[in-house]
Design a protein that fits this description.
Layout: E1 7-9, E2 16-18, H1 63-88, H2 105-108, H3 144-181
Antiparallel strand pairs: 1-2
The structure holds zinc ion.
The site of zinc ion has 6 residues, from loops.
Length: 202
């Protein structure tokens, strides 16, 4: 039997999770509300560390959720609005090979798009070794027509996902506002049962 671990509700993802000490959330990954999982809708915007890591449990103080709400409203919403606007302006897409050794029109389209939030974690956006955004990346045009078709498909997808992401962030804002509106000081919860315990990442 090791040390007893306390549990608390994360002020960002609102799951009951292990605390690192008596108050603060231990490291865990982000997961969408509504059972959505990381990366399912497209561009893996939500991979990685949850915003609530190291913040105090929601039972103890609304402070963490207030910080998360500010982050959503001041950073995430504007970033997602910018993403959508950028795609709708029909930019020249910068698309780097999805699969090495497989040449296609997708490798040929290039330069230059404001990268979406979380682009560094998305394999589709991974730049070749030693290059940075804005660099010329090798191109191997298949045909201009195929490239043009690919552009339209790619752009349509990106607009779709940008709209989804924007909607999701707006929904997240609503969830956090509601949680804050009904916040009261509570005791920390018991450990979650096995069935409800989420898998921790990282
Ligand atoms: Zn969390």
């Amino acid at each position: 039997m090791g040390r007893r671990v306390a549990y608390g509700t994360c002020p960002a993802c609102f799951r009951v999770l292990a605390l690192a000490d008596a108050e603060h959330l231990a490291r865990h990954g982000w997961r969408e509300y509504g059972g959505r999982t990381v990366g399912v809708y497209g561009r893996a915007h939500h991979g990685g560390r949850c915003f609530g890591v190291d913040l105090p449990a929601f039972e103890l103080t609304p402070e963490g959720a207030e910080r998360f709400l500010r982050f959503l409203v001041e950073e995430m919403l504007p970033a997602r609005e910018r993403d959508l606007a950028a795609y709708e302006a029909r930019p020249i897409l910068h698309v780097v090979s999805r699969a090495s050794g497989f040449r296609s029109a997708s490798e040929a389209l290039k330069e230059l798009l404001p990268p979406p939030v979380g682009w560094e974690r998305d394999p589709q956006w991974r730049l070749p070794e030693g290059s940075k955004l804005g660099d010329e990346v090798h191109t191997d045009w298949v045909t201009k027509r195929r490239a043009a078709e690919h552009y339209e498909n790619e752009l349509r997808n990106r607009i779709y996902y940008a709209k989804q992401a924007l909607k999701q962030t707006r929904d997240d804002v609503g969830v956090v506002e509601l949680k804050l509106a009904t916040w009261t000081l509570r005791e920390l919860p018991p450990p979650p049962t096995k069935r409800s315990r989420p898998r921790l990442r990282g």
